[in-house]
Design brief:
- With 453 residues, the chain is an alpha+beta fold.
- It folds into two domains: 101 residues, no CATH class; 338 residues, Cytochrome-c3 Hydrogenase, chain B (Orthogonal Bundle).
- The chain has 13 helices and 16 strands.
- The two termini are 33 Å apart.
Length: 453
């Protein structure tokens, strides 16, 4: 007699928005493994139409409360290309410092508070074992450091208001920038300490062949600019300017999701974007101390195990602190011209940056009236969504005969390795397992420490 089980994990609440997983096991075989996003569409690209150019950075910042800076800088980059604006090296450096702050804040939250419990056998960051009791405090202080950087340059920590097309509305003082140096120096050492801990975690053996997607810049680790690179097994398959993005990627609909998925052409192939892809492509461009730490981490590069993402994020916290420290120490004088003036005109351009979770792409068309006529935004989670589903399919054969709780936990850990940006809740999954073939037809599992279930 055929025996089937259905595992439904919903909602995915340690991601930004509403998502879930549906797994169907038939006679111990994975017949279905879907990663679904059922968040109602938010229509930001449509909301931008008819808006003035100067309004765009503040509007797109509202897309995400975790990585608003990436959305702002990507929009500014595209609109500045369209309008022929050259902002100059001083503004570029301050923007990189702002992006470093966001990376520190986002990665610190995920590594220390959300992801580490998976490896330490805890249900939350508040129950770390005694030997790791300082991990929570370190994560909170690093997150506060990132928020402070964003506040100094962006005007406030969430949805910054100081980023403008052409630069900044108001220049932060050199003294305020210099004052960040001491805490950034601490942050660099703290991030390296965290890396030494997380690199020794017990990682599941899960080597996969990925098509990695990230920016690569001529100089420096990719943050706010670069060419798009795609590789597989360490071999570069594509190296293109951002302007050719739409020739090689397209957005498609998945039956299980309300969110568009970005796939590679030809063949609608899934891809992996984010810290693992960036380090695989740009290991040699990490700042010196972070590069040495990556080399000494015990991870073999290029890495093909998504569970190592917690270590790659720790490396990127160190890299952001190291670069931010250099910028803060080097800031000698107040910025005399915070913003380049411009006149809206009919034009079209695109730009890409590296958000904490991966490649972020914007394209804008300005109409004859000087207003936004069209906009397109491809977020990192859209790129990773198809690959998450493929990874679930690859994970299940090795655990399909295990008990339901083990299956649920394994899927949980896999998805959390991607840090998908569709929620900011305190817990991750509630799991409902349907057993149509016998008694106990439904069993619920949950990792929400608040509910106690």
């Amino acid at each position: 007699m055929t025996r089937s089980r259905e595992v439904r994990l919903a909602p995915l609440t340690r991601v930004e928005g509403l998502g879930g997983v549906h797994i169907r096991l038939v006679d111990g075989r994975a017949e279905l493994a879907e990663f679904a996003i059922y968040e109602p569409p938010r229509f930001f690209a449509r909301l931008l139409r008819g808006r003035a150019v100067h309004e765009v950075p503040d509007i797109v910042a509202r897309i995400c409360g975790i990585c608003p800076v990436a959305y702002q800088l990507t929009a500014c980059g595209a609109l500045e290309k369209a309008l022929g604006i050259e902002v100059g090296p001083a503004i570029h450096r301050l923007r990189r410092l702002l992006a470093c702050g966001e990376w520190i804040q986002s990665h610190a939250l995920h590594v220390h508070l959300l992801h580490a419990p998976d490896f330490l056998g805890c249900e939350s960051c508040f129950s770390f074992p005694a030997e790791h009791a300082g991990l929570l405090e370190r994560g909170l202080r690093l997150k506060a450091l990132g928020s402070r950087i964003i506040t100094v340059l962006g005007g406030r920590a969430v949805h910054p208001v100081n980023v403008a097309v052409g630069g900044f509305h108001r220049a932060p003082s050199a003294v305020a920038i210099n004052d960040l140096a001491a805490e950034l120096d601490w942050g660099l050492h703290a991030a390296l300490d965290t890396l030494r801990i997380v690199a020794r975690f017990d990682f599941p053996p899960f080597e996969q062949t990925y098509e990695h997607v990230s920016l690569r810049a001529p100089v420096g680790y990719p943050l706010e600019d670069g060419r798009i690179v795609v590789s597989r097994d360490g071999r570069t398959m594509l190296d293109i300017p951002v302007e050719e993005h739409d020739q090689h990627f397209r957005e498609t609909e998945l039956p299980s999701s309300s969110a568009p998925a970005s796939v590679l052409l030809p063949g609608d192939r899934p891809s992996l974007s984010g810290p693992l892809a960036r380090i695989n492509h740009c290991l040699d461009q990490l700042p010196p101390r972070s590069r040495r730490a990556a080399d000494q981490s015990g991870i073999t590069w290029p890495c093909r195990n998504i569970f190592h993402s917690i270590a790659t994020r720790a490396i990127e916290i160190a890299a952001a602190c190291e670069e931010g420290l250099a910028i803060a120490r080097d800031c000698r004088a107040d910025l005399t011209a915070a913003r380049v003036d411009y006149e809206p005109r009919p034009a079209e351009a695109c730009h890409a940056t590296e958000a904490p979770r991966g490649l972020l792409y914007h394209r804008y068309r300005i109409g004859a009236d000087g207003l936004i006529a069209d906009a397109a935004i491809v977020p990192p989670t859209g790129r990773n969504q198809p690959q998450i589903g493929r990874d679930l399919q690859a994970l299940l054969p090795g655990i399909a005969t295990r008990d339901d709780a083990t299956i649920a936990t394994a899927c949980e850990r896999l998805i959390r390795s991607y840090d998908p940006c569709i929620s900011c809740a305190a817990h991750f999954l509630d799991v409902r397992i349907d057993r149509p073939s016998g008694p106990g037809a439904a069993t619920e599992f949950g990792s929400c420490w608040q509910s106690g279930r």
